[in-house]
Design brief:
It is a single chain. The strands form two sheets. A five-stranded parallel β-sheet has the order 2-5-1-6-7. The chain has a two-stranded antiparallel ribbon with strand order 3-4. The chain contains eight helices and seven strands. It is globular, with a radius of gyration of 16 Å. By secondary structure, the chain is α/β, with parallel strands linked by helices. It has a single domain, classed as Rossmann fold, CATH 3.40.50.
């Protein structure tokens, strides 16, 4: 795992996971939102967004977290990735996390509520088309994800 994409609905923990993996694997973390959203939460135009992503994926190792729903050009990242992690947690889990965050816009809530039925099928089609060689890891529960993280970085044993 050297070029990792983390996808999932809002408040699923993409950035938190990316930060953990970055520390464990010693790979740079790139938070997509910081590159995409312009001041006032204005989306970057699609052609410009593709150019930005092409620059981001040239490095030999990275972890990119972010799922921009209808605004995204995911195929750019998919073509470069060797590992795709999808956080497909229950809606109530993501909703409860999102409620604890700052105020979100209506389009965020709509995307979060409809992600499983709109974004996820599109993501799976794009993966099949643009990234058939990649390792795909889908986590449906936080406990599964916790086991995966532990498998990468088992806790150290106490000294005897």
């Amino acid at each position: 795992m050297k070029k990792i994409i983390i996808l999932g609905p809002g408040a699923s923990g993409k950035t938190t996971l990316a930060k953990k993996l970055s520390q464990i694997l010693n790979i740079p973390h790139l938070e997509l939102d910081k590159y995409f959203w312009q001041p006032g939460l204005i989306p970057t135009p699609i052609n410009q967004w593709k150019k930005i992503q092409k620059k981001l994926v040239v490095d030999k190792a990275w972890i990119i977290d972010g799922d921009l729903g209808k605004y995204d050009a995911l195929e750019v990242r998919l073509k470069a990735a060797d590992t795709i992690i999808i956080l497909d947690f229950p809606l109530l889990c993501c909703l409860s996390r999102a409620i604890k965050r700052d105020k979100e816009r209506f389009d965020f809530w709509w995307w979060l509520i409809t992600w499983r039925f709109t974004s996820r099928p599109k993501i799976m089609r794009l993966i099949k088309t643009h990234s058939p060689q990649a390792r795909i890891l889908i986590f449906k529960h936080t406990k599964e994800l916790d086991k995966f993280i532990l498998s990468l970085h088992p806790p150290s044993l106490p000294k005897i």
